[in-house]
Amino acid sequence: MRLVIVTGMSGAGKSTALRMLEDAGYYCVDNLPIALITKFADLIFSQNREISKAALGIDIRNGQALEDMKQVLEEMTAKNYNYEILFLEASDETLVKRYKETRRSHPLAVDGRIDRGIALERERIEFLKKQADYILNTSQLLTRELKIELEKIFVRDEDFRNLFITVLSFGFKYGIPQDADLVFDVRFLPNPYYVEELKYKTGNDKEIQDYVMGFEPAHIFVDKLEDMLRFLIPNYILEGKNQLVIAIGCTGGKHRSVTLANEIYQRLQAEEAGYGVKIEHRDIEKDAKRKALK
Predict the structure, then answer these.
(1) Are 283 and 251 in contact (CB under 8 A)?
(2) Residue 78: which domain range?
(3) So what's the pLDDT on residue 161?
(4) Which end of the chain has less Cβ packing within 10 Å, N or C?
């Protein structure tokens, strides 16, 4: 029997995660009253059970009763009921943006201030985060990427990697990414933009890659950055960090930054380590879109 308690910040994707688990064959119950959780566990862990895997959605909507969840978890542990806690996290900026896009109100934003509701919610559910077996930060995850991570953990039983790394290329003229943890400037490298036959290509094209990596400083930079990341990442994991955004920028985010971000991504992806990694090119198409609007 497998019981997963799905919790986390409102707007971080808990309902989406429950739907995905339901599609994967889990018996899902959302927002079950705290007082009924132990009885539900007694039922599904009984020997005559028909349910082999279940997921419970628990969040701030339980109000003050959420405090009783501490005792519920202790009771299930005392009864040797094996359960796992999946905690869905997201940055304050991402949560505020999602609430504004959906025009929904935060359950704790009684005065209409979403940011205050988020801060209060973080305080009230911190105890669940500390006990979580899995913490997924959805700030940078697309829905399909969240599904892949959930399938790894709850369908294929693969080792979970708590730290998720995003290697992000960007253009300085469009601003530094607000969620970046580490920012590197590669504008010291020769710019393919000034080579007529390369101007309209991107760092995803072999011609640009050959040009940028044809300069020795590019190789030295990637080697030194990789060496630093090999030192930093294990320490971030030990510290409990679950989301790391490595931003690499050039002028327009189309040539040099894309090439070097791809290089770093390939090196990190090849490592069998305690983290997941993805690549994202934020500004690669922006020059073309701006020209089309003129």
Answers:
(1) no
(2) 2-154
(3) 62
(4) C
